[in-house]
Amino acid sequence: MTLHQGLAFGLIATTVAAFVWGRWRYDLIALGALAAGMALGLIPVKEAFDGFANDIVIIIASALVLSAAVARSGVVDMLMAPLLPKLKDERTQVPVLAGTTALLSMATKNVGALALMMPSALQIARRTGVPPGRLLMPMSFGSLVGGLAVLVGTSPNIIVSEVRQETLGQPFKMFDFFPVGGILTVIAIAYLTVGYRLLPRERKAAIDVDAALAAQAYVTEVEVPEDWSFEEGRVGALKKAAEGAVSVVAILRRRRRIEAPHANLKIQPGDVLLLEGEQQELNQLIVKTKLRLRDADRPVAMSEPTEEVRVVEAVIGGESDLIGKSARGVTLSDTHGVNLLGVSRSGHRMAGRLATIRLKAGDIIVLQGAEQSLPGALQALGLLPLAEREVRLGGVRHAVLPTAILVAAMVLVATGLVPVAAGFFGAAVLVVATGALRMREAYAALEAPVLVLVAALIPVSDTIQKTGGADLIAGWLSGAFHGLPPIATLTAMMAVAMAATPFLNNAATVLIAAPIGMGLAQRLGLSPDPFLMAVAVGAGCDFLTPVGHQCNTLVLGPGGYRFGDYARLGAPLTAMILLIAPWLIAWIWPFAK
């Protein structure tokens, strides 16, 4: 072992130890490792920041933006709407939700697919009385296996493809992962359909700030368009469409006010409806029934043409000028350039017009305005902005466009007409340029810690390869596995990746293990492809902890899970994958060169 190899191993070992210790953030550890690599002379300064321009980072970032655009389009809600009322119990809910999440993971990045489906799952859980914990972990596991089936479904596939490009000159194609990933997805969903019973039934879910705020009942006004037609157009049909989650408080018809309208009352074009419900249910009903949110279309004064319209929530403070006054009385739109979209007053039903409701301290209001003028308006009105979160009231835009752009990008990449990075980057730019996603939303969709982690670790992991350390480890492993069948070596490589993922993060695992797998295959005179596939599957399948993948972390609080719950459901699935996947990989990707 040379000095540089020893230093490279020491740097990797220290980085891994820091990951396992968990005292610092993953991205900070990766940046520290990058700085240490430069200081030790292992990473040339001119190459130290190449990771930030690497195709891996571009593809992951673009996939996140595309996932966010599809999520905000509402297309998933529209496609799922006819099916959701039929899911009466967990026996039907688990396979449908987990299977749908897995399928979406084949079209968008797996964490994006899970984020798309979680609101629907939580809504179903509330409506049917099923504990969210019985649904969310199977969905998370479904997203993990579904992401294995396509190149952009999960970070390990993207990184493994890049490693193949750098060493063999050819990356994996979009659907090269599908034969293995698709079969494993079917097996996993079949297991989860019955295995969810291993999860504890009675477990109280943690409620975060966003969920608590979302549970506030808002009153908002919608106008019935002149050409409106929805089923028979009665109040009862509207309530049925909202599954009882939204109430029609009153109907304002010309100069007449109809309080608590009867279910059989016919809704007429031009009517103004006062609706009360949680933000998510209100938004879904407005979009589904094609009602028009009143005042949302009122022009907002912009200081610059590049400004964007934002919607924020704020609490009326104790010294606010709004106390005891109405929106009309203080001329919110004319004087402050903002529109009032909704009001929430805990414990009280407000039946008045939004413009005439006399506001009180503690009321939560939803305001729309230009991004540069909103902060000044909030300060002038004595409002306390809530922690920034997604607020949508009738604001779904471009229901089909993001999906069409995503499908077009996947086709172009799959047919080899454009490289993966260029195809998905172009698609991400296009969804922003067409207005399907605002620039602010695109930036918010980027998971900066993950991108920094990957970009910083690329040159760090390269030190093992460039110093000859990967060949050295491969030599040790080939000696250890000498005389054993190739399938045993492949299984061991997958088991190592599975074991490392909870401690290193799946991206870091692949960056370190993939070059070693390549070297091991070359030492044994075997094709490197099955070993790269084994690393991708092993790193993408963390079913034992909540920390190895963002999907598992995402459902931890809402599902009310404990650390050990993951192994309860995930250990049998891990064993199944480890027993089946190596044979499947060897069948699809033969060992012979």
From TrEMBL:
Residues 207-291, 298-383 form the RCK C-terminal domain. It is found in: Membrane. The chain crosses the membrane at residues 28-45, 57-76, 96-118, 139-160, 180-199, 399-430, 442-460, 472-497, 503-521, 569-589. Keywords: Membrane, Repeat, Transmembrane, Transmembrane helix, Transport. It comes from the Bacteria. Its main location: membrane. CDD domains: SLC13_permease. It is a multi-pass membrane protein. Pfam families: CitMHS. PANTHER family: BASIC AMINO ACID ANTIPORTER YFCC-RELATED. This is SLC13 family permease. It comes from Caulobacter segnis.
